[in-house]
Amino acid sequence: MDTSKLSNFTMSLPPRDVKIVDARGEKIGLTITIVSDTDQRYIKVRDKVQQRMNSTRLRGRIVKPAEHEELERELAAARISGIKVSEPFKSAIGEIAFNKANAIALLYEHGEFSASVRKQVDEAARSMADDFLTD
Q1: Helices 111-134 and 65-79: angle between axes, nearest 10 degrees
Q2: Torsion over CA of 81, 87, 92 and 96, rounded to 10 degrees?
C-alpha cells in the first residue's frame, strides 16, 4: 500500500447534531447541527475574526465590548451548519429557516432560552473531538 499521498487529504471531523433539551432533560424538538473547529468554513471565519481583533490591537486600541460580542456571535454562528425543528417546538414556534441571523438569534437573543441553547451547543462542540476519538 502506497501511503505517500495520505498527506494530500484535508481531514475534518463530521458534523454533529445537538438535540436541545429542556431543564428536565426532555428533547424540545430543536436540533442544531454543528461543525468541528477543523471545518474549512469555520476556520475561514475564525481567521477573519482573529484578524479583525489583531488589527484593532495593532492600531493601539482595545477591542470594545460591543465589538468583541459581535465577533463572538459571528464565530458562534459559523459553528452552526443547520437548524431542524420538530414537535413540540414546531407547533409552538413554527419553522426556522437556517441562516446566520436565525442562528445568532437562537444563541443570543432570547434570554435564558438562548443561554441554555448556547451552553448545550458549546458543550457539544468541546466534546466533539473526544467523542470522535472514542467511536
Answers
A1: 50
A2: 20
CB distance 71 to 48 below 8 Å: no
Give the cell for residue 117: 441553547
Digit-coded pLDDT (tens) for 2-26: 777 777 776 678 899 999 999 999 9
Q: Identify whether the C-beta of residue 43 lies closer than 8 Å to the C-beta of residue 36.
A: no
Q: Give the C-alpha separation, 124 to 104, whole Å.
A: 17
Instruction: For residue 13, give every residue at least 6 positions away whose Cβ sits within 8 Å of its Cβ, in sequence order, or none.
Output: 35, 36, 38, 39, 128, 129, 132
Domain residue spans of the chain: 15-134
**pTM for this prediction:** 0.81
How many residues comprise the chain?
135
Q: What is the pLDDT of residues 40-75, one digit of tens each?
A: 999 999 999 999 888 888 788 888 899 989 999 999
